[in-house]
Design a protein that fits this description.
Distance between the termini: 60 Å
Bound molecules: adenosine-5'-triphosphate, magnesium ion
Order of helices and strands: EEEHEEHEHHHEHEHEEHHH
Oligomer: single chain
């Protein structure tokens, strides 16, 4: 088992002329939850796409589960699960059928496939609805199904891009209860993006704030908060490290000058 299943070294990505990820580096220890936080457009999803081998890096290196994303993309894919930012389960299929597609895609077969599918359906609380069409699921159920699809092959590393967006507090809590039980059993390393600072604070061992492609702060949530003030929340830390106050102020000033 790698000491650092995610190891990012000077990663950079440019979309044509736009520098979306600018020379970022960080390491995630085995079994940890790492939160990549920052304003819209900061470069979080681009980073996740490079680490899941969906986008090439313009410069720098990254190792996932011990494999180089550039040189060994197949091995990386065999060892990871990925839940993209956008909902992607097929509504015209049942939950079971969606899961079966993923299980086949990951090369699972026979009795092992059936056992792993049953196990993950149980863990994600989907046994009773597995034969219903996904069109009839709530947002929270769809997200639990998508997570089931991403972990059915028991990956070492899991990438979750805004897994709880649009979920009500109860659905969010339920999703994390299921996922935590799973993570502890499998010792899965997780990289997560979220705009919910309470969620990041409660779950993440370490968080990094990104701003315009760069990492501007990285530490345990507790330390990032304490660095600002005794009573600071992670929301406050977000505003502080990403200069969001300045941005909101500039936007207000612009609005004032227009009206
Ligand atoms: N396919 C693309 N082509 C060109 N520019 C892109 C593309 N995808 C993203 N970008 C730009 O790259 C920057 C980073 O985008 P990215 O999606 O990584 O941000 P993000 O931090 O995930 O934001 P959000 O919180 O809104 O999901 C943004 O300025 C975005 O407009
Ligand atoms: Mg994103």
């Amino acid at each position: 088992m790698n000491t650092f299943p995610i190891d990012v070294q000077g990663l950079t990505h440019r979309y044509a002329t736009h520098l979306a990820v600018n020379n970022i580096s960080f390491k995630v220890p085995s079994g940890a939850i790492f939160g990549l936080l920052g304003p819209n457009g900061a470069g979080k999803s681009t980073t996740v796409k490079i680490l899941t081998t969906l986008l090439p890096a313009t410069a720098g290196d990254a190792f996932v589960a011990g494999y180089n994303v550039r040189r060994n993309p197949t091995e990386v894919r065999q060892n990871i699960g990925y839940v993209p930012q956008m909902l992607c389960a097929d509504g015209d299929l049942t939950g079971y059928e969606n899961l079966l597609l993923s299980a086949k895609l990951y090369g699972l077969e026979g009795a092992q496939r059936k056992d792993l599918m049953d196990e993950v359906l149980e863990f994600m609380g989907l046994i009773d609805v597995q034969h219903d069409l996904v069109n009839s699921y709530s947002g929270g159920m769809i997200r639990r199904l998508e997570i089931a699809q991403s972990i059915v092959h028991q990956p070492h590393v899991l990438f979750l891009d805004e897994p709880t967006v649009g979920l009500d507090p109860a659905a969010r809590q339920m999703l994390w209860q299921h996922l935590e039980t799973w993570r502890k059993k499998q010792n899965t390393t997780i990289l997560l993006t979220t705009h919910d600072m309470d969620e990041a604070d409660a779950l993440c061992d370490v968080v990094a704030f990104m701003k315009r492609g760069s990492i501007v702060a990285i530490d345990e949530p507790k330390k990032l908060k304490e660095a600002i003030s005794k009573a600071a929340s992670l929301d406050d830390a977000f505003m502080h490290y990403t200069d969001y106050g300045d941005y909101a102020h500039a936007k207000q000033a612009r609005r004032r000058s227009i009206t």
